[in-house]
Amino acid sequence: MSTPWLPLTQPEQITDLAQASHEQPVLIFKHSTTCSISAAAKSKIERQWADSGLELPIYYLDLLRFRPLSAQVAEQFGIRHESPQLLVIQDGECVYDASHMGIRLADVKAVVK
């Protein structure tokens, strides 16, 4: 099964996913399409997704096309912008924040239980 990426392209989606995170954790992957490290992190997530056991919504944010959304995510959830970056939003708050090669789906699974 491939990663079920959901495109994050509109400011109101951030509000909606924050609300939805009270029912179920939500993932946001911030990706720079011109960065080889970001491409490697995205590929790693895609390879590990099927075996991760995670059945959560995972949003894909193209930082180059939607830079203002990245700033909105950082401000709303009180995190420092990095790229690539994987966030877990749960109960309206960021409970996991990893970047670069520190992104591990096993860590996400441990956080969301």
From TrEMBL:
Source taxon at top rank: Bacteria
InterPro entries with a match to the protein in the record: BrxC, Thioredoxin-like_sf
Protein name, as recorded: Bacillithiol system redox-active protein YtxJ
Organism: Hymenobacter negativus
